[in-house]
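Sanity check

After download, print the first record. It should look like this:
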Amino acid sequence: MAQKQTPSGPSQRQQRVAELVRHALAEVLQRGDIQDPVLGSHVVTVPEVRMSPDLKLATAYVMPLGGQDEQPVIAALERNRKLLRQEVARRVNLKYAPELRFRRDETFDEAARIDRLLRSDKVQRDLESAPRDGETDSSADD
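Expected structure tokens:
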């Protein structure tokens, strides 16, 4: 009997719904529809939303502009989760309004780490000693 293979990543439907939820959340946060002093004093970006396979759970990765006050912003989003869920449900036509979770977006940290690695002395030394395109290493011909 053949086993059912599970897909390695999110389905096209998950990705499409995640993008709709991301746009809805970004619009609500941009317009200032949530009356919260922390959210009112910060610009919050929503670079990514990931949906569960059943589309009932949305994990939103958020980051305040400039990376300041991450924990208070995430706590404010959690406090206003119910209202945000209602606003998303109003803007995105789904059978069930997804439960929202908020997580810190770590892609900026990862990009900074990779940038530091690429600028390190060891990498620069390797780049300087590598043969250029079109050049041949004469010692390899011998």
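If your output differs, re-run the checksum step. Summary of this record's structure: The first helix runs from residue 12 to 31.
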